[in-house]
Amino acid sequence: MRELSMCRLLALVAREGLQLDGFLTALVSAAKHDPYLGLGGSHGDGWGIAAVSGGELLLYKSGKPIWEGASLGVLQQLLRSPLAMIAHVRRASFGMPSGVGAAHPFPVNLSDGGLLVVAQNGTLNVSRALKLIGRKMPPDNVDSYLYAVALAERLEEAGSLAEALESLHRELEEQQAVKNLANTVVLLLRRADDSWDAQVGVVKHVVDEASFKYGELYALESPGLFAAASITVAENLDCGLQLKPLGGNTVIVVDEKSLQVSRRSL
C-alpha cells in the first residue's frame, strides 16, 4: 500500500466550550497505528494544522511524526473554541517529496488578502492534475499542493467555496486524475467588508472500490459543533460523540460563525 498516499484528516467547526483534547488525541492514536494499513501501519511522514479562532490564525507544519516532540502540547494550549480547524497526519506516497515543506496543510494566498489552506488524503495523477492549473507549475510538486493551486483558481472565479470544490472534483473525474481517492479538508479565510470570515470544506471523493472502507469519512452535526474525520480518527474518539459515515461522495461547507452546513453530492 506504500505507493498510495494514505493519510488521515480531521475538520472541526465549534462554538465556545468545546474541549479539543479528545479530537487531537484521536488523531495521534490514528497516526501511531492504523489497522486499515495492516500490521505496523502508521502515518509518520509529518503532520500539520490550520485554525482560525478569536481573530487569530494558526498554521503549523512538521516533517516529524505527530507523536514526537512537544509541539502538539504547545498547540493545544493555543487552540480554543470557538474555532474553525483542519488537521492532517501524513503517510507519503512513493516518490513524493518528504519533510516539512511537503507536510500538509498547504496554504495559498488569495487576491483579496485571504488564505486558502488545503489538506488531503489520496493520490492524484500529477501530469493530469497539472492540466487543470492555469499557470506553469513544476511537475515534481506534491500532488496535493497542485490541487490547492487548482482550487484557489476556481475559488477566485466562482466566489463560492462549495461551487469551487464541486467544479474541481468533477474536473478531476473527467480527467481521470484521481488514482484512488481525493478526500479533502479545506480552511478558507476571506474578507467580508471590515471583518474576516472563515469556512471549512470537507470532500469525500473515493473512486477505487478497494479504497471504499479505508476512505470513508465520518461526520457529526450538532448544536454548536460540526466535526468530520477519517474512519480511524472517528473510531479513536473517546468523548461520547457518535460520528456517522458520509456514504456517497459529497461536498460539505460549514460557516464558522453560523455553523450553517451545506451539502452537495458528487
UniProtKB/TrEMBL annotation:
- The residue ranges of the Glutamine amidotransferase type-2 domain are 7-266
Q: Which UniProt keywords apply?
A: Glutamine amidotransferase
The signal peptide annotation in the UniProt record is none
Q: Does this entry carry the keyword Coiled coil?
A: no
Determine if Glycosyltransferase is one of this entry's keywords.
no
Q: Which InterPro entries does the record cross-reference, listed alphabetically?
A: EgtC-like, GATase_2_dom, Ntn_hydrolases_N
Protein name, entry field: Glutamine amidotransferase type-2 domain-containing protein
What is the originating organism of this protein?
A: Thermofilum pendens
Q: What is the lineage of its organism?
A: Archaea, Thermoproteota, Thermoprotei, Thermofilales, Thermofilaceae
